[in-house]
Amino acid sequence: MTALFKDNHIRFLIVANVAIIIIAALASQGLFLDSYNIKSMAKQLPELGLLAMGIMLAMISGEGGIDLSVIGIANLAAIIAGLTAKTYFAGKEQGLSFMLVFILVALAVGIIAGLINGLLISRVGFTAILATLGTSLIYTGLAVALSGGPAVSLGYRKPFVNIGNGSFFNIPYSFIIFAFAAIAISYLLNRTAFGLRLYLMGSNAKAAHYTGINNKNILLITYTLSGVLASMAGIIIASSASSAKWDYGSSYLLVAILIAVMGGINPDGGHGRMVGLVLAGIAMQMMSSSLNLLGASVFLKNLMWGLLLLLSIVFTSSNLWQGFDILSRRSKSGGSSG
Amino acid sequence: MKKRSLMWLLAAVASLAIIAGIALAQSNYTIITVVKITGINWFNRMEQGVTEYAEATGNNATQTGPAEADPAQQLSIIRDLVARKPDAIAVVPMDPATLEPILAEAMDRGIVVVTHEATNQVNTMYDIEAFDNTAFGAGINEVIANCMGGEGKWTVFVGSLGSKTHNQWADGGIANAADNYPNMELVDAKQETFDDADQAYEKAKEILRKYPDIKGFQGSASTDVVGIGRAIDEAGLSDTVCLAGAGLPSSNVEMIESGTIDGVGYWDPADAGKAMNVVAAMVLDGVEIVDGMDLGIPGYESITLVDGAGEGKIIFGTAMKFANKDNLADHLF
After folding, report:
1. Among A95, A149, B182, B328, which is least packed by CB within 10 angstroms?
2. What is the CATH number of the domain that holds A137?
């Protein structure tokens, strides 16, 4: 726990979150803290959060690791799953099978799409940015071709629509899925051999290779996981919109990368915590929702996000905090001698 | 004495209540218009209408919308608005299907929901359409027919065969020519241009080669008149070939002034924005909206009411506008 609070990113993000809550609550005269608004924010966070998680894993793997195809995977998974489930389980009494088939097919598409990314990067040797840029166009193109362009309407089918719209004891289902994914990935990163190897490979691929780590397999698993997380985002987006379309969330990619970077994930690899990513996601969501709540211009939101990122860079650059630590130490020692 | 002071007190309370009642009845509504994209010409013009409405009525009417064209962003803006709980939201959906669950939730929360350009929206109280699409198509065709003198070969383009609106416009034009101008001969109807001016240009060049005696072109996508116009211009046929279609006058000034484009049909987004707000306020006031009603906005003086896709109704105006060389100055915004 104490190690967490020594992390500059975590420190900054905690302060930022508290500041946003206080300012937003005051400015909106308490409306921001209304339970409906909190629930509504909790429904919006998972889509971006899951996409950012996939990008985070790719970034930790190092050597310029990134996954630009997450949106493409999310939409392709939702469209294939939607078309399949609609074809075989369209009946009124088949709501439950519709949902299960949708989820299974979407996850399967996520695994396959992620595997393709992983194979291109680990076996064929493409750089991650080129491989995933290419596949993102292919996945999106496939999504357009399969759906023909317009949205694949899924109808208002329960319990499927509940994933993105419903709640369990006032906690949105989508948020439960997000929390579960965050805990699982966090466990994987911190408590398993895979996590240790991923961090090692990210900080120094050559050294990792000489310690006997199979870098290729680690990369393959990493991008497959990213694909699975993206397809989970796809399921939630499709459910909250009760439809699937190739261009849903097309503006989310940069925001997801922004969340990962602001959460302290090092784009050079080898470093980054799930707690940071979750806190960054919460900060961004609260900022955007509070501005909407106050009726501010949508362009202000982008400006504020950019500002928050710049602030995070300023406040987390180690020099600044080192200076702060030295100063506080000096003042302490000065006090004792005097 | 005591009785009297009690009476005074009661009278004071009653008058206060009445004043408060009047104040409440007049209390301003918060109506938020959510458009597809913020910052483009079309929706800037709509915002002018919304602002004018707010100034005229004292209602707190504002406009918002995503900075990028992304249906998911529009959904999340509306989700935030539903949490804010305004009296009404007026939405121009990027994709009606995406918004069904959240609009249902908004209505459950007691928010009045009005839409525009979304005849297939299930979860709305009123969807407002500037005009009947068939009548609009016939109106454009009338421009061409007049220009052609009611005779000769003509054709009609659509942005895509999948677009319901474009097909209705084209069919309206075809029906108008067939019914009223027996000497107009339709050739190669409904060429697809994929909402792309270059495609329209290529298709128009093909048609000009295939039918050297063609006299009229009708466009559907706003890019059609641009591409067809270029082809006609290059062939030096501006004076002999007639061209009209849907498009914004301000985007086609040059070709309208030169006479290449003989007319563009459009509707004014400012009036559509006002109409949405007027209808939302009427619902809030409990005013019943009936067929033939006057909304007090140009083009919406005698509305047509039909059943919508869900429990709501669709309101059709007659707000089509046609701009040509002679009246262009009145249509620029």
Report:
1. B182
2. 1.10.3470
